[in-house]
Structures are given as structure tokens and as C-alpha cells.
């Protein structure tokens, strides 16, 4: 400003002399007052003339756009549409991902114009209803849908919207689901189609829903279906070969995500987003590119994407580079919720909301049954039926009457049940698929044992008696051999008998050379833990052990790792409040060997068991994310991570995880369920009196036997 007043041609700016362009003007648009936004300092604010913006007349804007899109009855349609949005914002439930603002109105109008041009003979009322329905229904919760449809039928009382046949697209989606051994659930197929419809209208799309509702599968299946349709040379231009690039934005730092300038050397280091978008832009073919951000959305990183997600479609980097996004590029986000996202972000993106009821859990058991048929065809159908009947009764009971300290979702309990059945009904346990009476009995017994430790394994000790009283009669209706005692004390012997864990606790031998802190006295709990660990690790799955401090979680796991069977190598890491995602990445790169430039794994012929203790210790960021947890989730979900220096993707292979943690509180934090759903979760109960007596008498008795009293 002082240079303009002095009418200079050259002036000094931040230590450099630059020429002055008198026609240059600065315009600031801002929306202060919520997450991720700050007020301008007063000395800067005083240099600018403030102009207040008011809410525009939506009706007039809608009318003008509808006229420009070729609608004859634009006046009445615009009024009805504005009323629909007004009533929706007042009557529907308040959700973080709902938005009924100007951007939502505009996207509907653009969609209506597209439909009008593709169906010029269709009644204009029907065209607008379809546009309003198709762009809003994907984001609504199931209890808001009837209300929304009711508002539409009130505004358009005589209109009858014809059924839309998705024909080839629906067939392609169903074929891809079956090719991947997944079930065709009609409500879920509808969600996959809604994802495509939303993408056609918006280039920023969010898949929102709790863990286990099929968000990742939804985008994967759609990408594969579109690719298949293009390879079959389908006429629709929306069906193109699709490439999905995935990263977790919270598994790296902000500088690694967007790039940063070194303050000392003034050298620019490129970021992941810049590289991925540049790579997508370099492909000029009509192929679709989706950059999928599979991680928490918060104001720290998403606000920098505002210019990408609105009509500018431009990625602005801190070094002044501006990358214009092609129409083939879609920004996708997979999130559990939008509790800490700003309204600016929500209004810019199309939303597809997935609820557990769209998918249900029965399809998980059916998929497991199909896969198990290849292992033991004689038992698969029967086990599938029993599992569905048992879970139908057990899951409502658990949710109503039992307490989990680290909560699970229904899909996690079902997955755990299926994993344990796969683990125990195996040749290791003398089941060879001969279908004899003895073997059928053994299968029944292992099925009952799996039910106890999957559905009830994560329950707090106070809830276990009630769960045992409920479960035992249920199990006895299919497995009459199951004893009527506490179901948690029962184990299975390979001879085909139920035995108690107490009866197989080995005797303790006192060794004076072992340090006091390394002494492990076997108890019922340690025997149970060892048996479950051995079987789950051999079957190739992961597990999480939680429990109060001092119940022996880490000691038991460490003892198991010290005596692992052949074919396994082990590694351990302890999380603390200061653990960063870079620390965890260093652990992967140091414990695993580079098989290729972009592939890490254990030595050939082995599997790596990584034990992560205190997994819930890393401190929360401003908006509640834990970067080490997000990196671990990316490795589990997408089998790899990005190199922090050269930004290429490194795959991780043949690694299994054992996690341990105490309940949240006192420096420990709640961990995202999107990580824990991959694990079989077990709660270690506090030591009972018999276990305490056994431990102290064993150690004291062993010491007294070899130490003469003086």
C-alpha cells in the first residue's frame, strides 16, 4: 500500500525487490467463526474495505438456472424446490453430513438439466423430482427417508415417478460381487449405484458410515464394474476404466501431505497429494481416476482442499503451483463420521451414507459358508445355519444386557465367530473331513467353543455370568454334550470330550535363576490365552487383548512369542504418548526385509508376528486422530504405506499383529473402531482368588523348598 501511495515502480517485499503492478488488487473471502478458521488480525483487517454478504434469494437463482437449462415451468418448480429444502432442513434430523445450502441446490439444478436433455419428452415435474431424489436420498438415514419422500409427495401430489432400470450397471455390480465371493444384497447394490450417481453430479464424494458397513468394498466394486463395462465396450460414456489411488491422510504429517518449503535452504519438497494429482492429470485418456482419502476428515487438512472441491477444481500448493483437475478425476473420502469437519467441506461434497442395516451381518456368515465349503463341504451348510440362528438371539442379548469396555460392532463379532470356526475346525484338531459320528461331534464342540470366545470373548467379567446363563442352553440345543457349568471354563479335548481349562493347567516348576519379574505361574487364564493365541496365529489372523492393568496381558503374550512354533519370526514395539506415525514406519522398515524395492516382508518361508503393546497410548491430535493408529490401519486395510522421502508405495506382506491395551482413561485414548474391527477381541478378567492363591503359593513354596530357614 505504501508503494502504491508513493507511486513507485520497484519496491522491497520480504527482503526482495520486485516490480509494482498498479492494477493488482487483493480480494479476501472468508467465513470465520468455526473449526479450522481464524479471524484476521486487526492491523491487516483495517487495510481492507469490509463488504458483508447476505443470504441470496434461492427461489430467484433456482428459477434462472432452470430457465437456462430449458425448463418451461421454471417459476413454479423453483418455488417448490426451495420449499422442499426449507422443510427438509427444519423437519429432518440434524446430522453432520446433511447440507441444504446453495451448493446443494445448484447441484440438483445441474442434475435436473442433464436429465432434461437426456429425456426431453419426460414431464418436467418428474425430471425435477428425480433430480431431487437422486441427489438427496443417498445421504439420508433410514428414518429420515419416509419424511423426505412425504415432503416430495405433498409438493407434487399427482406426480408418479417411474421406476428406473439400471440394467447393465446393476448386472455388472452383481457379477463383481459374486466374482469376489460376496453376497448380492439388494439394498447394498442400490448404495453402489447411488455412489456412481453422486459422482456424476459432484467431483468430491464422501462415503460416510460406521465401520463394517462396506464403504471400501462399495468403491472397489463400483470401480471394477465400471472397468468391466468399458472393456465390454458399453455405449454409456460414464462407464470408463477406473483406477483407484488410496492413502490415509492422517498417516503422514501435513508437510508430507501437501509439501513444504525448507525455511533454511528455501527448497521445496513435494507432498503426496501434489504428486498423486499430478500423476492423475498426466493421464489424458478418458479413464477415470479416483484419489481415495481413507481416513478421518478434520479441519486441519481438509480446509486446504476447498479450492479442489468447489467449482474452481484447482489444487493450490504452498509453492504457488496451481494444478487444474481434469473432469476424469474424482476426490473420494471414506470416513466414519463428520463430527469435526467444517460446514464448508460438507457443503462441497456429495454424500453417500451407509448404515449397518443396508448390509446386515447375515451376508458375512453366508460368504464364510461358501468359502468353508471348499475346506469341509459336509459341514459348511449346517454350521452356517446354526451360526445365523445363534447370532440372531445372542447379538440383541449382548447389546441389551452385557457390557464391553472396548466396544465392538455387530460385524466384528460375526467376523470373529467365523474366524474362530475356521481356526479350530481344522486338520490340526483331528478334523479330516471324513464325516464320521465322532468327527461330527468334534465339529459341534469346536463350533460351541468358538461361539463362547467370539461372541463373549470381549465381555467384561461382570457381564460374563449373565451371558453364560443365556448361552449354555442355546448351545445345548445344537450341541447336547456342552456342560451346564460356566461356559468360559470349558475347553475341548481332541479325543472328543469337553474338559475344563483348570484340568489342563501345567504344574509350576520353580527356577531360582529366573528373575522374579519374569516368573510366569500357569493359571486358567494363561492357559486359555496361550491356546487362543496359538490357534489364531497359526490360522493367520490378528487379535487384541484388553484388560485392566496388571492382569498379565503382556507377560502372557511375551511368553507365547518366546516359544513360537517354526515358521514365525517375532518383533515388538511399545507405543507411548509421543509415538508418531514415522516411528511406526521405522519399525516396519527395520523389522522387515526389502524383498523388492516396493515390497517388505519377513524372511522367505516365514510369517512375522508383531506385538504392539499399549496400542491406545499415542496422544490425540487437535481433532482426535491418532497418526500411528491410522498408519497401522492403512497397512491392514490396504497392505502398505508410502515412502516418506520418494513418495512411492511400499507393500507389506505376511505380517500378523497382536495388540494389547488397558481400557481408555488416564492417558489412554479410545481407538477408532475402524482399526479394531480387524481383530478378534478378548478381555482378560481380573485375577480371582484361586489364581492369586496359586501364584503366591507356587512362588513362595518353590523358594522355601530350596532356601533353608535360618
Furnish the topology, listing elements before pairings.
Layout: H1 2-5, E1 10-13, E2 16-19, H2 42-45, H3 58-68, H4 74-91, H5 102-118, H6 124-136, H7 145-155, H8 167-179, H9 186-201, E3 204-208, H10 215-231, E4 242-247, H11 254-258, E5 260-261, E6 268-269, H12 272-282, E7 288-294, H13 299-302, H14 306-309, E8 314-316, E9 322-324, E10 329-335, H15 343-348, E11 350-353, H16 356-359, H17 362-373, H18 377-401, H19 410-424, H20 437-455, H21 464-478, E12 490-493, E13 497-500, H22 524-539, E14 543-547, H23 553-562, E15 568-574, H24 581-591, E16 593-596, E17 599-601, E18 607-613, H25 627-638, E19 640-642, E20 649-652, E21 655-661, H26 673-676, E22 680-684, H27 689-706
Parallel strand pairs: 3-10, 3-11, 4-7, 7-10, 14-21, 14-22, 15-18, 17-20, 18-21
Antiparallel strand pairs: 1-2, 5-6, 8-9, 12-13, 16-17, 19-20
Helix pairs in contact: 3-4, 3-5, 4-7, 5-6, 8-9, 8-10, 9-10, 17-18, 17-19, 18-20, 18-21, 19-20, 19-22, 24-25
Mean pLDDT: 89
Query: What is the beta-strand fraction?
Result: 5-15%
Helix share of residues? 40-55%
Instruction: Report how far the terminal alpha carbons are from each other.
Output: 93 Å
Give the CA-based shape: globular
Structural class: alpha/beta
Low-confidence stretches are none
Q: Helix tally?
A: 27
Strand order of the largest sheet: 4-7-10-3-11
Would you count the extended β strands for me? 22
Radius of gyration using CA atoms only: 30 Å
Largest sheet data? 5 strands, parallel
Amino acid at each position: 500500500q505504501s508503494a502504491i501511495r508513493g507511486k513507485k515502480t520497484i519496491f522491497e517485499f520480504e527482503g526482495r525487490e520486485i516490480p509494482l503492478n498498479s492494477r493488482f488488487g487483493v480480494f479476501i473471502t472468508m467465513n470465520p467463526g468455526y473449526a479450522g478458521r481464524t479471524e484476521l488480525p486487526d492491523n491487516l483487517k483495517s487495510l481492507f474495505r469490509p463488504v458483508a454478504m447476505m443470504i441470496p434469494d434461492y427461489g430467484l437463482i433456482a428459477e434462472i438456472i432452470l430457465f437456462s437449462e430449458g425448463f418451461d415451468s421454471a417459476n413454479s418448480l423453483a418455488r417448490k424446490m426451495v420449499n422442499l429444502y426449507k422443510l427438509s432442513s427444519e423437519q429432518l434430523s440434524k446430522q453432520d453430513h446433511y447440507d441444504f445450502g446453495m451448493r446443494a441446490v445448484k447441484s440438483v439444478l445441474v442434475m435436473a438439466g442433464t436429465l432434461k436433455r437426456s429425456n426431453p419428452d419426460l414431464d418436467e415435474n418428474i425430471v425435477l423430482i428425480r433430480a431431487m431424489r437422486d441427489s438427496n436420498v443417498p445421504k439420508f438415514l433410514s428414518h429420515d427417508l419416509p419424511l423426505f419422500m412425504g415432503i416430495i409427495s405433498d409438493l407434487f401430489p399427482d406426480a408418479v415417478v417411474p421406476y428406473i432400470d439400471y440394467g447393465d450397471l446393476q448386472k455388472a455390480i452383481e457379477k463383481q460381487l459374486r466374482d469376489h465371493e460376496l453376497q448380492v444384497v439388494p439394498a447394498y447394490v442400490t448404495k453402489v449405484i447411488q455412489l456412481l450417481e453422486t459422482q456424476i453430479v459432484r467431483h468430491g464424494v464422501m462415503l460416510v458410515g460406521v465401520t463394517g458397513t462396506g464403504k471400501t468394498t462399495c468403491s472397489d466394486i463400483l470401480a471394477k464394474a465400471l472397468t468391466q463395462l468399458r472393456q465390454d465396450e458399453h455405449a454409456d460414456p460414464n462407464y470408463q476404466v477406473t483406477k483407484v489411488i488410496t492413502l490415509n491422510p492422517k498417516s503422514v504429517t501435513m508437510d508430507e501431505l501437501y509439501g513444504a518449503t525448507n525455511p533454511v535452504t528455501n527448497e521445496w519438497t513435494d507432498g503426496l497429494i501434489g504428486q498423486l494429482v499430478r500423476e492423475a492429470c498426466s493421464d489424458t485418456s478418458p479413464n477415470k481416476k479416483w484419489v481415495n482419502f481413507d481416513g478421518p476428515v478434520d479441519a486441519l487438512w481438509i480446509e486446504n482442499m476447498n479450492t479442489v472441491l468447489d467449482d474452481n477444481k484447482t489444487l493450490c500448493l504452498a509453492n504457488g503451483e496451481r494444478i487444474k483437475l481434469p473432469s476424469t478425476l474424482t476426490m473420494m473420502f471414506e470416513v466414519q463420521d463428520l463430527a469435526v469437519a467444517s460446514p464448508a467441506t460438507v457443503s462441497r461434497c456429495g454424500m453417500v451414507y451407509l448404515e449397518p442395516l443396508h448390509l446386515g451381518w447375515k451376508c458375512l456368515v453366508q460368504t464364510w459358508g461358501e468359502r468353508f465349503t471348499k475346506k469341509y463341504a459336509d459341514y459348511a451348510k449346517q454350521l452356517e445355519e446354526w451360526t445365523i440362528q445363534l447370532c440372531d438371539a445372542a447379538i440383541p442379548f449382548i447389546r441389551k444386557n452385557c457390557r464391553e469396555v472396548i466396544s465392538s460392532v455387530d460385524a466384528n463379532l460375526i467376523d470373529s465367530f467365523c474366524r474362530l470356526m475356521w481356526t479350530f475346525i481344522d486338520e490340526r484338531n483331528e478334523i479330516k473331513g471324513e464325516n464320521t459320528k465322532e468327527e461330527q461331534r468334534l465339529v459341534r464342540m469346536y463350533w460351541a467353543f468358538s461361539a463362547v470366545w467370539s461372541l463373549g470373548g470381549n465381555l467384561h467379567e461382570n457381564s460374563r455370568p449373565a451371558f453364560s446363563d443365556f448361552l449354555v442352553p442355546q448351545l445345548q440345543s445344537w450341541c447336547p454334550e456342552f456342560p451346564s457349568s460356566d461356559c468360559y471354563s470349558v475347553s475341548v479335548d481332541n479325543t472328543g470330550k469337553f474338559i475344563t481349562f483348570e484340568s489342563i493347567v501345567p504344574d509350576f516348576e520353580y527356577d531360582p535363576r529366573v528373575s522374579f519379574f519374569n516368573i510366569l505361574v500357569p493359571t486358567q487364564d494363561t492357559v486359555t490365552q496361550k491356546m487362543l493365541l496359538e490357534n489364531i496365529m497359526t490360522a493367520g489372523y490378528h487379535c487384541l487383548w484388553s484388560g485392566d492393568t496388571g492382569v498379565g496381558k503382556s507377560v502372557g503374550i511375551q511368553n507365547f512369542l518366546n516359544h513360537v512354533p517354526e515358521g514365525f519370526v517375532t518383533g515388538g514395539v511399545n507405543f507411548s504418548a509421543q509415538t508418531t506415525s514415522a516411528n511406526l514406519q521405522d519399525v516396519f522398515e527395520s523389522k522387515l526385509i526389502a524383498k523388492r524395492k516396493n515390497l517388505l516382508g519377513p524372511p522367505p518361508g516365514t510369517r512375522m508376528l508383531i506385538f504392539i503393546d499399549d496400542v491406545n497410548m499415542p496422544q490425540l491430535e487437535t481433532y482426535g486422530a491418532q497418526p500411528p493408529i491410522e498408519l497401522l490401519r492403512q497397512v491392514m486395510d490396504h497392505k502398505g504405506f508410502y515412502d516418506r522421502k520418494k513418495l512411492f508405495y511400499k507393500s507389506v506382506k505376511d505380517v500378523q499383529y497382536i495388540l494389547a491395551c488397558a481400557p481408555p482413561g488416564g492417558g489412554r485414548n479410545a481407538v477408532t473402531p475402524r482399526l479394531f474391527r480387524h481383530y478378534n477381541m478378548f478381555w482378560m478378567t481380573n485375577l480371582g482368588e484361586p489364581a492369586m492363591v496359586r501364584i503366591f503359593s507356587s512362588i513362595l513354596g518353590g523358594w522355601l523348598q530350596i532356601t533353608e530357614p535360618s
